[in-house]
Amino acid sequence: MLRILPAVWLTLPTLILSILYVTKAIYPNNYGVAATAGATSSMAFLVGFVAMTAAWEAARLRRGGIWEAPHTRSRLDITIIAVTPSILLGAVVLLGTVVDASVYGQAGMPEIRIVAVGFVAICSWSLVGFLAGLRLPMSVSLPSMLLAPFLWFAFVPALPVEWLRHLSGMYRDCCRIGADIAPAALLAGLIMNVTIIVAALYAIGALRMRWSRIAATAMFVTGVMVSSAFAWNVGPIPEIARDPSALRCTEVGGTGLCLWPEHDSPTQLFRPTLTAVIVELARQDLPIPGRWSEELASATSVDTLTLDLWKSDPDSIRWSIAQGLAPWPACSKIPNTSFSDIPIDVLRGWWFTAMGGSEAMLQENLGWLIAEPSAFGVPPIKELYGTVGAASVASRVAWLERLTSLVAECQSPDDYSVQ
């Protein structure tokens, strides 16, 4: 029997495909919630194989006359036995990709809440596939069940209606290290998938096709309404701020430095690099915020540099700091604004250089500006940074404050030189 079940011989290739996809899609950030959520991105094609194999098994039962024949087991029992291999296929691949994402991202333990909702989604689509195999010709049910989950998990998140993406049970956009998965999004996905399970089981076991369609549709619409009520106010990224009490804070030369436990272990370079940067900037008498923290920015984050740290190598940490120190004016978010972000890039590059960042990283991020500065209305970048670095402390600070204030007011400087 195992030799003829597509769910069995599809498990290994699907697992390999999912791991390869997740390894390319996930950015290591040492955070278990983010790694687990990123691993669910594989569900866009994983669930298609689950639904297709369930439809295959249902079609086999239907074509062989087994489904309509008299039998001692109930239809519910037969359905559960038939879809179990498909569910196991999905569970093995989901767990395999989650473990791979956790190892690849050095993230520790996976987030069980996200895995649980993903497993319920796998169960729901296995039943949808089984129902399709019973009701549709095999030539229709197999390709449609391979395609439908892809549209649900990949196409729906691309729609302008942002809250719809949280109904599927895939949370690939969550979460920054300063955030946690939004309970409302988890609940919305759980309710929606449980609704699909109930509606599919009813339609599978119903004897009268017409009434089963009406009842199953009513169940589905009700589930969409209830789950939407939870997802309605959740933004495109299903996250909420983490409890700041978990932050580990210390003082570095009068500057407060707060990191999450994932970035403060003995094996991480975050705190040593950040400490070295703070000491270097203080030595140069540069104006820096009095508190640096990985917590998400909020209205109460006064005089706080919000750190967005993704990679642990020193240059990446320095570039993240430079991004935070360079101001982002409100006008930069307004569509069709005439304000250019070139001054922001100039400031980022200067902060990065002042922190002792490498030439390679500077070229990687601002190579286009270094190569042709005149095309963007700025002087040769390296010469500018060298002149500013050689100027007196007062002149250097005055130059920095002048450019920063102009950018904050959505103005581009006419003259970048030290005055």
Task: Jot down its keywords.
6 strands, four-stranded mixed beta sheet, 419 residues, two-stranded antiparallel sheet, 3 domains, mainly alpha
What features would you describe in this structure?
It is a single chain. By secondary structure, the chain is mainly alpha-helical. 58% of the residues lie in helices and 5% in strands. The strands form 2 sheets. The protein has a 4-stranded mixed β-sheet with strand order 3-4-5-6. The model has no long low-confidence stretch (mean pLDDT 83).
Strand order of the largest sheet: 3-4-5-6
Structural class: mainly alpha
Instruction: Give the SSE order as H and E letters.
Output: HHHHHHHEHHEEEHEEHHHHH
Major β-sheet, in short? Answer: 4 strands, mixed
- Portion in beta strands: 5-15%
